[in-house]
Structures
1.
Amino acid sequence: MPLVVPVLRLFMVCLNVYETFKTLKPPQPSTRRGGQPSVRALNQRKRDLKGCLAVWVVWCCYAAYERTFDRVVAIFIPFYSEIKSVFLLFLLLTRAKGAEPLFLHVLRPLIKPYAVVVDPTLEVTRDIGDFLFALLQVPLDYMLSLCWSPSWHTGELDAALGESSSSTHISSLNSAS
């Protein structure tokens, strides 16, 4: 069983990515509507997007649970690896039809009471991340030029201090040793 769960996990992610790729592709244009997709195709795409999003939300919650509590729970529950394998097979075989009820009846009631707190927190976190990203885009040379004078590159610093001050400093170092 140690090999089955990682293989199922990898297959699940690859299948999710492929299904998302197919779902995000725009529907075929209809000849009857002047090149616009039909209403039926748009509704089907909307249902597919909803199912795809439910699969990703369930998968992310499972991955977060597994990363956080997996080793502790595995100690207390016998055949835990087999249970995880059955759950992953369930998600693989049923796809959106199995993930949507899990999302609607299990995850959504757990998350909904905290939406009032989580939404503003995520918005502030996003703003801070955007600011830090913009700050990192400023070139390092430009920042260094603001902090220090470029005179240390050209030797103008020695000329500004004068040769006598630098030579007396060097001679005092030689006499001290």
Note: The mean pLDDT is 83.
2.
Amino acid sequence: MKTSVKTCINNPVVTTGGSTAWRRGRRCDVSAFEKTRQEVAGLAGAEAEMALLSPYSRTPELSAAALLLVENEERFQSRLADAIVQREKDINVNVRLARKLPLPVENGETRPRIDLVVFIVNLVSERSLQAAENSLSYLGSDYFLGKLCFVVTDARCGAVAQERLLSVKRLAASHRCPVICAEHQTEDGVTMAAMRVLTILKVSAGLSPVATTALYLSTFTRCTVPSDFDED
């Protein structure tokens, strides 16, 4: 399959088949500072709206879905993005990458409507979990209605990873969103994670025939790989 690469407003666009992945350079789609939810709430009205990401701030495109992969350490983002783009043939999938939220205001006008936000958490890194927790403050409440999920890696790396996995699962449960465990060190594991994310993305974007989104997504709320880490 022929793949073309071009540059559009400092964002390389990778196109394969009917799918499109929007790639960002390192640190491009991230502000250089962090604010808490209280600080965002204290901003002026217009400024607060720009700081919070909303799934309904743009008109949806026909037969298209946009996905935001957020990973502080940028270890798994690109591989997952490539797998998603290569796997999907029926719809146009825009995949954007960020290290953390909020996204920069200057790119707001060209940014598509984000249908699903995925936080990738490396369980051997405390900073990775903290960055995801801090970034949640910049999501509009509508994302907590089936438009958010967590992907965790290194879930089998000892007791510390187990503790952080339980923390992620509690965080996901409090926001009513699914958790996916990814075997990121194998191609089959990356492909499986991409398929699961694509399934959730299609439901979130209204492109799936599934009747009840909330009921369907509830089947993803349990970790599917390291079952020995599940709480009683």
Note: The helical segments are 37-41, 45-51, 77-87, 126-135, 158-174, 187-204, 213-217.
3.
Amino acid sequence: MCAVLSQGCEVCEPAPVLYVSGEESVYQIGNRASRMQIDPEGVLLYSSTDLDDILDNICNCRPKPRAVVVDSIQTVNLKGVSGGFGSITQVKECATGFLHVAKQTDIPIFLVGHVNKSGDIAGPRTLEHVVDVVLYLEGDRLLSHRILRTVKNRFGSTDEIGVLEMGQDGLQPIRNPSELYISERNIDQDVLAGLALTVIIDGSRPFLVEIQGLCCMSRSSGESIVRRFNGVQDKRAEIIIAVLGKQAGLKLHSIFLNVVGGVRLEESAADLAIAASICSSVFEIPIPFDMAFIGEIGLGGELRTV
């Protein structure tokens, strides 16, 4: 990010960017930049964890940097304030100190923060209130793609998202994100049942998502029912299964649902696609690949627009 910011664009000339690291030494950062083939020209590296020292270097840096990146706010410490690194008091006071310097020098400051197990920024929620923009980089650790999501933006809308893929050269933008959420086509695709496409909206961008359904009939009267849902809300899936059983007369037993690409379906627009994938698997009828299902299913079996 620092290298991209320092290169400039059509409306601004190249300018240096100051990267302050409390996590790694300058030597470690240089090795990582060399491995990722990043041009270090225009990037000023500095390693420190003392807030007063960092702020003094920002104010006295010549030429004036276009931006400052601090990695991370949890490793910065302010002398005279109680609490260790990453404590609530330290994070709050350090963030406030960066805020004052950013206003005085008119230099944008990016604060990189740790996240906890629930995916939220570690530390006090006041950290989000201090800054102007809050960005989350989301994604499954086993998958290569990441979603850059805006949670707070005082300068514009929070509806836009960015879809990125981690490669050898770092994160790269993906031009067609729908390719991530659709399984690869093969010569047997026309005879595979249980696959249905739907369209979801994430931010302001539509995505094609593939839902896979597998239904297994009972082989004996005493066999237990097994139902596993990956990427689909359990309660929503159970409602759709109940509607198919009551309104369509389907005798469903063990059912397995999966959403390709690790997507978590939150909106009801995917109800019809879930039902279609289940019916396709039950009747062994493949669904054409050029067909998508969008609609909410009511308890009476009726379809509702979304």
Note: The chain is about 25% helix and 25% strand.
